[in-house]
User: Fold this.
Amino acid sequence: MKSLQEFFSENPRAALGFSGGVDSAYLLYAGLRWGAEVAPYYVKTDFQPEFEFLDACRLCEELGVKMRVIELDILAWQNIRENPAGRCYYCKQRLFGALKDRAAEDGFSLLIDGTNASDDAGDRPGMRALKELSVRSPLRECGLTKPEIRKRSKAAGLFTWDKPAYACLATRVPVGRELSKEELGRIEKAEDRLAGLGFRDFRVRILEGSGGAKLQLKEDQLHMAISGRREILQALGPLFPQVTVDLQAR
Assistant:
């Protein structure tokens, strides 16, 4: 299995689907470190919270590289807005399709993303879309797992090294419930407010039927939900008609 340095030696120019998360941040750092021309592209949609965009901007500024932003109205497509079981496939098609077109205009033929060797490729819809668009995943190809990437990121001084894994806001909505800008915005506000109360690595999910919120917290933070019940209700009550806590934890 080749090393990441060898990958970039063989592929010195690439357009990177960049999210500002642990994996794509390290991939960008590594490519630049080994002399490759890696251009980070951030596809901005209603599915990404503002803090992710700001983290992506910060990381690029610290590495001294220009981030290219593609604005995309992801809810304009019915097969995404209706939130079917295979939504991720259609979403990845649109995201990386837009990236591929923009990258081609900028002179890049190779597209890469931050999928790592810990990710279960299987028959996941999003992975299938990436394969169809010929997007390569250097971290996965080179056998780099999430723990190893975090370790290397910390050694490199990247502030992203201990960021929790973050799935897009659309994953908070039950399959089959139509996605809306308004509801995604409320989810983002709720998660911002919970983070402000000291919670970390959690999810605010929409309850099917009622449209209320279900909080999925780490087991070691469940006690915070009990002791901070009033504060949570004050923060989230104006956003949702009902707020519950999932005792099974994340």
Remarks:
- The chain has two domains: 4-162, 180-245.
- The mean pLDDT is 94.
- The first strand starts at residue 13 and ends at 17.
- DSSP finds eleven helices and seven strands in the chain.
